[in-house]
Each structure stands twice: as C-alpha cells, then as structure tokens.
C-alpha cells in the first residue's frame, strides 16, 4: 500500500510531466531541424524517450540508495520550492542542469545568510535542510555527470551553419533529459496533518514520512571543430570539480549546523 501511495503521489508531480513534455518537444525539434537542413531525418529513433525511462530507473535506484544511507531529510516546503526553482531555471536560459544548480545554490546561500532573520526562509529552510539541500545538489550533479559520460555512446544531431567567411560549419548537438524519483525523508508534521492517510514512522524521537522527490536533469553537448570525445571529457572535468566542491560544502555545512544549533 505504501508503494502505491508513493507512486501515485509521484505521478501527480508537475515536474514529471514537464520533463515528459520537454523530451517530446526536444525530439520533435531535432527531427524538424534535420529535415529542414537535410530533407530527411538523420535518426528517427526516439532515443530521447527510451533514455528518459532507462536512466530514470537507474538514477532512482542509485540516488535513493545514497539518499537513504546518508539520511536525506527535507522539509515539506522543499517539494514545492524545488518545482518553482525548475520553472525559474527554464526562464533563465532554457532549462539545463547548470542553470538549475545555480538557482538551487543561490537559494542555499540565502538560507545560510538569513536563516533566522526572515520568517519565510526560516519556514522553507529549517535547521535540518542545509546539508540535505546540498546533498540534493550533489546527487543532481552526479546524475548529470553520468548522463554526460554516456553521451559518448549516443549519436549527435548534425547542424549546418554559416561561418564568418561564408563557409558552412558543421555543428553536432546532443541532449539528454531525465526526471527520476528520489526516495527521501520529510518531517511528518505538515504532510500527515494535510493527508491523514499518509504513513508515518519513527526514527529515534522524531517522526518521518517517505516521499518520492522528483529530480529534473538535462545536459547537453555542442561540438564544433573538435572531437566529440574531447568536448565531453572537458565537460566531465568541470563536473568533477563541481562534485568535489559540493562534497566539501556538505562537510562544512554539517559542522556549521552542528556548531550553531547544538
């Protein structure tokens, strides 16, 4: 019964359907541009949809294991705030994991700067959420890294554009988009009072509920006058730096919260 409730609540999240819509639009744009430039679709296979499902299931298992082992705990409001941030990331420059992470990081910094001075931020980011919010970012970057690495195996869509001297330049584009459920803990107070049927269990002296938190990941690669493998490798190096930095921030934030709130 718990599994059905979790799946049902996840299927109602706007982020999931936004991701599905985004994948369909990306596929149609790719096909239409290829037909416009080459009079034929280079690859009609809907691999965007297949990868959406395949990687979604893989990230669900791996991400949820990390979440449960490290105790990812988020306030109920984070479920709604995250989906608002998704929309903001779209408005910045079209959705990408990078733009989403920038918005999430900004929200996290605001929480560290004004955690006790503005009631709104205090409600959205209580003491327990700082390290968990960074862990959420870490899992997102890790998924982005895996998607980027696996783009070496996938074909890129060719484009032809005019250069400065009137010569045609070949460009190759690739994009992978995934929405996956992440199993996380939330304090039971708000959710259980709103949904009386939602199961609650105890960990120590605290009550928690389980939730499938929707994670939206979208990464792209653009190749111009370089080998695809080299472009992807350079992007992976930058992502590795982000992973390392986020890990350090998680450790530092853990100590900060322990020092400030103990």
Structure write-up:
The protein starts with a helix and ends with a helix. It is 62% helix and 18% strand. Helix 5 (97-113) packs antiparallel against helix 7 (129-150) and helix 7 (129-150) runs antiparallel to helix 9. It has helices at 2-11, 14-38, 47-70, 76-93, 97-113, 119-124, 129-150, 188-194, 228-261, and strands at residues 157-162, 168-187, 201-203, 206-224. Residues 115-128 and 191-198 have low confidence and may be disordered. It is of the alpha+beta class. The chain has a four-stranded antiparallel β-sheet. It is built from nine helices and four strands, in the order αααααααββαββα.
Keywords:
alpha+beta; 9 helices; 4-stranded antiparallel beta sheet; 4 strands; 262 residues
End-to-end span in angstroms? 38 Å
Average pLDDT taken over every residue: 77
**Which descriptor suits the 3D outline?**
globular
Sheet/helix structural class: alpha+beta
Instruction: List segments where confidence is low: pLDDT < 50 over at least 5 consecutive residues.
Output: 115-128, 191-198
Count of distinct strands: 4
Strand line-up across the major sheet: 1-2-4-3
Provide a short characterization of the protein structure.
This protein is an alpha+beta fold.
Fold blueprint:
Elements: H1 2-11, H2 14-38, H3 47-70, H4 76-93, H5 97-113, H6 119-124, H7 129-150, E1 157-162, E2 168-187, H8 188-194, E3 201-203, E4 206-224, H9 228-261
């Amino acid at each position: 019964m718990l599994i059905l409730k979790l799946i049902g609540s996840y299927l109602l999240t706007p982020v999931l359907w936004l991701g599905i819509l985004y994948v369909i639009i990306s596929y149609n744009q790719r096909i239409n541009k290829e037909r416009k430039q080459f009079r034929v679709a280079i690859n009609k296979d809907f691999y965007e949809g297949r990868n959406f499902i395949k990687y979604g299931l893989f990230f669900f298992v791996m991400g949820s294991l990390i979440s449960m082992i490290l105790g990812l705990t988020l306030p109920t409001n984070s479920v709604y705030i995250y989906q608002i941030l998704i929309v903001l990331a779209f408005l910045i420059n079209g959705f990408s994991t990078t733009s989403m992470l920038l918005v999430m990081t900004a929200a996290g910094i605001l929480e560290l700067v004004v955690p006790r001075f503005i009631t709104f931020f205090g409600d959205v980011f209580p003491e327990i959420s700082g390290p968990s919010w960074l862990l959420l970012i870490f899992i997102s970057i890790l998924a982005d890294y895996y998607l980027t690495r696996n783009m070496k195996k996938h074909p890129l869509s060719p484009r032809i554009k005019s250069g400065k001297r009137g010569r045609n330049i070949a460009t190759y584009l690739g994009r992978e988009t995934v929405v996956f459920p992440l199993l996380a803990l939330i304090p039971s107070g708000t959710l259980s009072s709103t949904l009386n049927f939602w199961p609650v269990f105890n960990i120590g002296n605290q009550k928690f509920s389980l939730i499938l938190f929707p994670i939206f990941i979208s990464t792209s690669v653009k190749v111009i006058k370089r080998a695809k493998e080299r472009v992807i490798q350079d992007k992976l190096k930058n992502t590795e730096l982000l992973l390392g930095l986020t890990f350090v921030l998680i450790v530092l934030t853990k100590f900060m919260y322990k020092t400030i709130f103990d």
